[in-house]
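User: Batch of two.

Assistant: Item 1 of 2:
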Amino acid sequence: MELNAGPYLVTGATGFVGSAVVRALVERGADVRVLARPGSDRRNLAGLEVTVCEGDLMRPDTLRSALDGCEGLFHVAADYRLWTRDPEAMFSVNVDGSRAILQAAHQSGVKRAVYTSSVAVLGIDPSGTPSDERTPVGFADMIGVYKQSKYRAEEAVNEVIRETGFDCVIVNPSTPIGPRDIKPTPTGRLVVEAATGRMPAYVDTGLNIAHVDDVAAGHLLAYEKGKIGRRYILGGDDMTLRDILHTVAGIAGVKPPIMQIPRGPIYPIAWAAEMWCSLTGNGEPFATVDGLKMSKKKMFFSSGRAESELGYRHRPGEDALRDAVIWFRENGYLSRP
């Protein structure tokens, strides 16, 4: 489907991936609307010519007004945390919110939508071979509330497609890295810690590192060339955690971690950190029990389908890490205690 002038609505536009999608659309000359909650941090929208529609995924009336007259929808919004005090709230936003906005888009006459899922819902090959969209997986394989909620959300999206025939394409970003990670995301926090030399050790695991701007470009390609109801992994380079941390340390000019440690001794620390955050209500634990469980397998993925069907391309993972470190440094994250 041709990506024309629009207008297009982007949810999650104040966040990391969502703002990158907004920028990609603006650069294409599209008329962009963004759904933003009242009082939300809108630094990522500074300087962009967009129309802000205040609303909330859990308020259907605000969705319909934001979607009125829209050509397309990019539903990027999600509650992305590896730990939460309120699992029901995460399920509500990720599952019910996704269903609500796709139904509203269908009822509003939107021609096509791109739903941002995650590789978190895909199967992991225990041998370490890169997984793809067809690697076997079930709900029982989902570790933690975030993965579980995104798995159910993708099921809800497919239900809407089956029941209404709504034209929706699904993209599964791997681990986006790059500029404007203002929160930052869990992976962004890892980069900050490594870039400030506060990561003395690491566990044996791996991630697929993708530049956030490549992921955003993949969203537009999915809108233009994707098949209804089909998944597309938007990834980058497979890197071990050791290589990620050493690359970040080299870019930042700090000492890299020198020791690989087993997970066992970290579990009590993660459990205690979660308990402290639960009791005090302050922040999020840097180490989580679910995160340790997930790290038992290398989360390597192939973007082969997106490359062959969409024309998706990605730059080296080192470039993504470099752009992230530069942005974090320029915005004061590396000088914080």
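Item 2 of 2:
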Amino acid sequence: MGRLALTRVLLLIPVLLGVSIFIFLLMRMIPGDPAIIIAGENATPEMLKEIRDEFDLDEPLIIQYITFMRNLFSGKVVSIKTRRPVFEELFPRFLNTLQLTLFSMAIAVPLGMILGVLAAAYRNSFLDNFVMVLSLLGVSMPVFWLGIILILIFAVQLGLLPSGGKEGFESLVLPSITIAFALTSMIARMTRAMMIETLSTEFIRTAKAYGLPRRKVIYKYALKNVMIPIVTVIGLQFGYLLGGAVLTESVFGWPGIGRYIVDGIFARDYSVVQTGIMFLSAVFVLVNLGIDILYMFLDPKIRRGVGKS
């Protein structure tokens, strides 16, 4: 397990290096001069030159890249737009996104697994059809549309919850439900499909033939065997959500990292976009490492395979 963790951490270096080069070049390909966007169309040539000199925008690309990497590792990356250290702006927004992600997952994971197991256990019943229709709506419905509908009902019409912003626990409810609805649908569909496949296997039929209670067969034996693909889906979605649910954050005015990076793209704030995407890439790789380690606890065969290697 220690070797696996060390290998993944070492692989983080070339991954981040490749991401840094790719996003650096991609940002330079986007039309628009950061100096003009920040200073305005009526800025004097002297003002534009001052901004370009301050952030080395007139230097060759290789010099700009080296300067950025040096500032990144020293923690001195400064936003072109706000002239504040990027990490001071990024971390609070990441914590906001992490809070939203954890709350959404706390709703979606148990609910999605319960619905998926029940749908598989009572296949072709009314409950199964209801879960499948609900999950189809969840994966098909645009997130921004659902968010607007929830705002209209619970904020505008009923006045029960705030329509946006970050003003305590109540502000979490609507954006979390918006994210959790699609995530619940995805987990329910995956759980149902894997459970149906597992319930038709020989070892489950053998367990039933020995007279084991149906509930024990489903929850102790079948569900345990479908946990690895379910954990994979959950882990990947967790990593994606940490990247910022941009549409949800925009609809609800949630000050998360996804919205922060998108605002940086519109402002041509190279420092914000490059630092933010590299940070999220590191987080995503670490989340995948956590998933791999969790596999070993779920499946002894994987533990033995890692131990032999």
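The chain is about 80% helix and 0% strand.
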